[in-house]
Amino acid sequence: MFKKSPLFLLLMLFSICFSANANNWSHLFDRPEYLGVKISPDGNHLAVKILKDDKPALAFIERATMKVTGSAILPGNNEVGYYEWVNNERVVIQINQREPWSKESYFYGELYAINKDSSKAKLIYGYRAGSKQVGSNIKKNQQIIGWAQVIDFLPEDDKHILISSTPQSRHSDVIASIFKIDVYTGKIKQKLGKGPAPKARFITDVDGNLKVATAIDKNYNRQAYLKKGDEWHQIPEANFGQYFTPLTVNQSGEHLYVIDNFEQDIAGLFKLNLTDGSYKHILTDKKVDISAVNKTVDKRNVYALRVDDEFPAYYMLNKSLPEAKVFKKLVASFPGHVIDITSQTEDGKLSIVRTSSDIEAGTFYLFDNEKNSLSLMFKYYPNLDSNKLVYTDPIKFTTSDNLEISGLFTQGKVAKKGEIAPLIVYVHGGPHARDYWGFDATNQYLALNGYSVLQINFRGSSGYGSTFEEAGYRNWGSAIQQDILEAYNWAINTGKAEKGKACVMGASFGGYSAVQSAINYPDTYKCAVAYAGVYDLEFMYDEGNIKRLYSGKSYLEKTLGTDETVLKAMSPVHGVDKINIPLLIAHGELDKQVPFEHSERLIDALDESNKEYIWYPIEGEGHGFFDPEDKKEYMNNVLKFLNEHLM
C-alpha cells in the first residue's frame, strides 16, 4: 500500500526526474527527492517535503487514500525549510531564501503557515509580513523587523506557538523578546518579556512555560539562567561544566536534564534540581560524549541518548514513553543504524521513522505500533541501489605519543582481488568537529571510482572529551597534522594503503590541512586537494564569519592563540616554498565563513614560488556546495586530478 501510491502521486504532482546515469557515479550528488515526512497528530495526513523546480516544497497527502490534498510551493526564491504540524490541519514552516547572487538558501527568521488543503496561507512572522508579501494569495499582517526561532510548538494549544524574536540589528549583542503568536493570524497573543542575554536558547517545561536559557558570552564561556517568576536568575558558572546543554524539564518540574562534563572529561547526562541547585550525574559513556538526543515529538522528554564510538549506539531512557517503546523495537530491527522518529500521532499508534546507514542516505517508514508492522514509504534516493555502494568501517590506532585515534575507512573498488587501491586521506573541517559513520556521497564517489578513503578524528576533534579536544588547540599546523600523517602510516602498515600512493584532501579546515600537510611532509603525499581552506591564520582575526560572531574573537584566541610567530608558522601562505607536489585549489567566491581572499593569497604565494597548481574558483557558491551541478563538476575535476597523479 505504501510502496507505490505516494511515489506515483507525487511524481505526477511535481514531475520529478532522477538521473540514472551512473557512468562515474556523479548522480550521488543530486539532491534527494524526498527530504522529510511527518504525520499529523490525528494520523490522517502526511506532510511530505519533496523537490519542485529544484527546490524544497511540501505535499499534503491523505494517509488512508494516499491522495494529495494540497501543497506548499513557495514562489520566487523562497523555499520550504524546517516544518512542523501545529494541529491536525495546519503546518508552520521556516522560510529559506536563495539570494539572486547565490546558489545557497538561508533562513532569515521568517515563519509561514498553511493548511493541508493549501488554504489560509500566511506569513505569520518576518520582515515581509507587512506590505511586501511572499505570494499574492497571502494576507497582509503586521511587520516585525526581526528574526524568529520557535521555542515551543505548544502541542496542547492548537492556535499558538512560542517564539523568540530577535530585533534586526548590525550589532550582535541584541536580546530577543519572547512572544506567543497566533499561527493563523501571526498576531502576538502574549508578550513574555525578554531573554537574559544575547543569542540565548530556551527550554520550556511540560506545560510550555519558559524555564531555562543558555547563552555564550563574549569570552566564549557558557552562561545559564533559570526563570523564576518574571525574572531570569543566573546560575553560577562554578555549578556546571563547559558543555552545559539543557534538554528537558521533567514532569514534576523539579529537575532539568542536561548534557554536561561537570567535574569529568566526557560529556554525559546530568540532572539539575531546580529547587535546591543540586547537580547529579546520571550516565556517561566510557569513551565518547553523548552525540545526539532523541526527544519526544513535543520536544519535552528524552527517550534515548546516542553515542558514536564506532557505529551509532543508544542508551534508552524513560522507557514508559510511547516513543521509547517504539524506538526499542526499531533499534532491534536496524542495528547499527542512525534512527529517528520524525513524528508520531497523539495516541502513539503511528510513527514516521527515518533510518540511515553508510550505504543508505535515508529511508522513511510508517510504523504501526498496534500491528507491530513497518511499511516502507519513501527513500531520499528511490533509484539508488544500496547494494552497489561501499561499506565504511570504523578504525582505531595509537599515535607515537600514545593517544588513541578513531576514524573511518572506506575500501575503494579495485579491478583485481587483492589489489591495493590508492588512498585519499580525507580530512574533516572544524577542526573542532568530527567525522561520523554514515552515508557520505564524497566517500562513495571516490571509493566507487577506485580510491580508498581514510577519515581521521585527530586530536582536537570533538566528541571524545574535553581533554582530547583541547589537545588540538593551538596545534592546528603541528600535532593535528602529525596525527593525520600517522593515520596514513597506520593504513600502510595494515595493508590498506601503499606507500607513495596517497593524496590528502579536505574542505575548510580540511582544505587548510591538505596544504599544510604538503608543507610539513613534502615527500609523503603525491598530491593535495583543498576546497575553501583557511590559508592565513592571522587573516581570520580580520575577516570572515567567525570574527564577526558575538564570541568569535574569544573562540579564535582560545583555539589558535595570538602569537604572530606561531600563526605565521602554521599558515600555508608563508610555507609554500616547501611544497613539491601538485595542488588543486578550489573556493566558492561567495564564501562568508572563510573569505575567498584566503585562496587568492595562497595563489599569489604559489605564483611567487613558481609552484604547480590548478586554480578552481566557483561562482555563486559559498562555504560548501549548494548546486548539485557545481558539486558534480568539481568532483569530476577532482577525479581527473587524482587519476593523473595517483593511478
UniProtKB/TrEMBL annotation:
Keyword hit for 4Fe-4S: no
Domain named Peptidase S9 prolyl oligopeptidase catalytic: residues: 437-646
UniProt key word Hydrolase: yes
Stretch forming the signal peptide: 1-22
Name the record gives this protein: Prolyl oligopeptidase family serine peptidase
Biological classification of the source: Bacteria, Pseudomonadati, Pseudomonadota, Gammaproteobacteria, Alteromonadales
Keyword entries, A-Z: Hydrolase, Signal
Top-rank lineage group of the source organism: Bacteria
Organism, scientific name: Thalassotalea nanhaiensis
